[in-house]
Amino acid sequence: MSDFFEIDFLDVESGKSGDAIPLRYRLNGVTEIHVVDGGFQDTGDKVIDHIRKYYDNPDFINRVVASHPDGDHAGGLRTVLEKFEVRELWMLRPWLYADEIIDRFSRFTSVENLKKRLRDIYPNKASLEEIAKKRGIPIYEPYQGTRVGEFFVMAPTKNRYLDLIVESERTPEATKEQPERELTALGTFADKAAKKEVALVKSAWGVEVFSEDETSAENGMSVIQYANLFGHSILLTADASREGLVEGADYAPSIGLTLPGIDYFQIPHHGSRRNVSTKVLDRWLGPCLPSKPAKGETRFTAIISAARKDEDHPRKSVVRAVIHRGAKVVSTERSCLSIYHNAPVRDGWIPANALPYPEDQED
């Protein structure tokens, strides 16, 4: 079989969106399997079934990446680690740096107590660590500049990651009045904020409106990965923040990546307005086109991991913004998606339909 790649975005169908991305590539006759996130806990078996069915029922997975601690990304990886032989686990663990950041927490004088508290705050990562240790899976740190197989880690840097641990609303300074019950079984905090009514306004081509609010510190911890496979540039963003995307763009010249210029762009955080901006999208994807591209004249593909029942994602403003830059936008709202080059043919898989251009957007 010739060299190829296939990257699959599974439809994590629940009330909320999640990410589960198994991928496989063959280079110089060597095949490797790489899993980025596993959706919710209930999604783990779906990831395993997909790998067994479409990746020739392999004996092992080369590497697993837990992009950040949220349960809609890390939850399903427990099952993957338990049911498959995994050669490498890549994830960041806040408690490993307790001795470096303890001076920034007024309530703690004991490093061990801070470690325990951080493990309690991030139970998904703690569970993955426990499984990995039990099964003898080595754990590596995916900081900017490391390689995960054929993928470069673009962000985060260690310094920014440590800042995010301290700044998080989950960490001890910010949560001292929070009852423990607000930590859910999936390791995400209950959203106490009342939902705001979002008004839609009709907007002309090129008009972009994003939220002034920033995404969470946990989303900002997301591991951003880039690869160029057979001339196709691919960016996997998880729930990356604007700051993380800027950090990644600043690093791009170090690996010979000239921006703008991404062929497959995963829109971060299921299409949230708090994770991108006009400036960020300009850097990665280029400026707004003067007019809507004709059918078949798109410049790149933008992928959104979004559940059909999730009323909050994707936001129309984000779909508009990537189409402004020439994207064909596809979403997992209806089915699994696959991007590929020279990959084995799959029975029953058909080309994905593009999302239409929204004439209105959130005010």
Number of strands: 16
State the separation between the terminal residues, measured CA to CA.
51 Å
Query: Total helix count?
Result: 12
CATH classification, class level: Alpha Beta
Which shape, going by the Cα principal axes?
A: globular
Mean pLDDT: 91
Q: What order do the SSEs take from the amino end to the carboxyl end, as H and E?
A: EEEHEHHEHHHEEEHHEHEEHEHEHEEE
The domain count comes to: 1
Query: Which percent range describes the beta-strand content?
Result: 15-25%
CATH fold name, please? Answer: Metallo-beta-lactamase, Chain A
CATH architecture descriptor: 4-Layer Sandwich
CATH-defined superfamily: Ribonuclease Z/Hydroxyacylglutathione hydrolase-like
Q: Roughly how much helix do the residues carry, as a percent range? A: 25-40%
Radius of gyration: 20 Å
Widest sheet: strand ordering:
6-5-4-3-2-1-15
Estimated structural class: alpha/beta
Biggest sheet details: 7 strands, mixed
The low-confidence parts are 174-194
Q: Would you write up a description of this structure?
A:
Helix content is 26%, strand content 22%. It is built from 12 helices and 16 strands. It has a single domain, classed as Ribonuclease Z/Hydroxyacylglutathione hydrolase-like (Metallo-beta-lactamase, Chain A). It has 363 residues and is α/β, with parallel strands linked by helices. A hairpin with a 2-residue loop joins strand 7 and strand 8. The strands form 3 sheets. The chain has a 7-stranded mixed beta sheet. The N and C termini lie far apart (51 Å).
